[in-house]
Amino acid sequence: MTTKISEKESTLTESSVGPVCLGLLLLFCIGSPLYIPDSYEQALGWLCRSGDHPFCSDLDLLFRPPAMSFALAPFTLFMPAFIAVGIVAWLSASWSIQPLARGIRNVLGRDYMWAATFTLLGSWATLRLLMLADARIFVLLPLFWSWAISLSLKDSDRRMGILCGCLMGVATLTRPEVLLSSLFLIGALAWRIRWGVRWTTLGFLAPMGLWIGLLSQKAGRLVLGPRYWEGNLLAIWEWIPRREALRLYGMGLYSPEARTLATDPLTQSIQPDVLSGMGWFLSNAGTMVPPWVWIIGLGTIAYGIRQKKYRLHSVAALGLSAPYFAASFLPQARAPIFPQANFIPLYIVILIAFGV
After folding, report:
1. Alpha-carbon span 119 to 290, nearest angstrom
2. Are 85 and 133 in contact (CB under 8 A)?
3. How far is C-alpha 71 from the chain's CA centre?
4. d(Cα 289, Cα 303) in Å, to the nearest integer?
5. pLDDT, tens only, 257-292
6. Could you tell me if 113 and 101 are in contact, meaning their C-beta atoms sit under 8 angstroms apart?
7. Which residues contact residue 96 at a Cβ distance below 8 angstroms, ignoring those fewer than 6 apart?
8. Could you tell me if 142 and 179 are in contact, meaning their C-beta atoms sit under 8 angstroms apart?
9. How crowded is residue 22: how many other Cβ atoms within 10 Å of its Cβ?
């Protein structure tokens, strides 16, 4: 029995290497990675953690979850940290295709795997988005692998369950909004394998417990994310110019003293704005993926949800991208310079569904 399982796993792995190689080639041919301000802050995060630099004294290293900064470490041995950000993002974008291909082949078959792969890699817009040198790309690797493992996870798979949970934790320690995706996947697993989800939950809570502990110790109270002070910033936008407000509270890693004030955040200022969020989503979501692709892709997912055999898989696919859609309802979660970056996992899910 062990031999048969190992042979099956080997076949699945080999069959999903082809899409990875194709992705590596296409992304390499496109050109240089796209750097945004967040890209440089990832590099600064590692530089300040690995050495004592004068400019680090005014930086809040807990502002951004640290997973990508730590991933830069081996690459900085032979290249500058700023270049390493682009290399790590490029490799993550390419190898994140493997868990997608493996999961689709495991559920639907080889033909569907290649159809989805060619659709995804045949979209120029998606390839351009995958060249973004940022944690939004790095997070795809642990996020998609946790999804692929969860598809075939059994009640007795202790090691794979813990690995799946740890990957969810790494993804959440890369982008805070992925916390919702991880909880969504854990809920889907609990529905399918019941008590067996305890190993995945244990693997997830191990890194997350440490992260939440560090944030709560700094904040002086229990907090779940590093931007617990943003309520105060958004509240004063109504009273003083935004430029002055940003001077008080800073932007990104730069942390003035106003962030450290021991005041409770003004939670009423961070309530979701549904109407504004829907308008922002609709005005940006169709700029790279045509509306007819959205319609067919969503129709495919809806069809999968109606079929009992594919229901959990379709729901789990939505769970990967739904938090990014929900983030559009929070003003502070929207990317003003490159808004399409907010929808990268959602774009990928829709394109795969369209190809299938």
Report:
1. 13
2. yes
3. 15
4. 20
5. 555 554 454 444 455 566 666 766 777 777 777 888
6. yes
7. 140, 141, 143, 144, 145
8. no
9. 17
